[in-house]
Amino acid sequence: MEKFFDQKITCLICNHEHKTKKVKSRYIRPLSHDTDFCSTYDSNDTNPLLYYVSVCPDCGYSSTEQFGVSFPPGTQEAIKNKIQKHWQKKDYGQIRTVATAINAYKLAIYTGILKKEAPIVMSGLYLRLAWIFRTVEKNTVQEKRFLKLAAEQLELSYTLGDFEQTEMSEIKLLYLIGELHTRLDNNRQAVRFFQLVIQHKDKNKERSLVEKSRNRWYDMRSKQKQLQA
Ligand SMILES: [Zn+2]
Asked: What pTM, to 2 d.p., does this model score?
């Protein structure tokens, strides 16, 4: 049985039409979920994290479904100069190894930086790449490196408000920032963001995340008190 389907994509830089593979939803089998919404899957073969990014085989422009369709002034030229000019044709539209998938993420991160993509979109790339390092590669150093970049972009998104255009609610955003700081051992920052969730004006709308934040907040406060005692 075919576990993948091909999604058609028209490149926004060179107009080339190409395909990228996606795992069919019935084959996506998460075994467990972490507190930062990371899922572990039963097999690398059908791990949807490996197919999040699409890469144009003709010019190297790399993106996700979250990327915006417009380009701020000068960014198309920057992508053409820094990526297309040096691109050696490679087809990412096939079954991917973990190494190929990680490469695709790095290409999309570079493209996103040149494109001045919204922080909420960049955070999605950094976070998923961190999850691959946690659940597939078991590489804590690389995991933390990308969690830190994800936390920075999420905080920027909170400041600029670009998440309001997406499915991410403010409470979920604040909770996630708190979670990432917990994992990065930034306890004071974690407490600060969990507190913003607990006191949020919409706290009655997302009770489960507020409850989780409250528990986390108590844990961290008692840890701080133990350290001070
Ligand atoms: Zn292209």
From this structure: 0.96
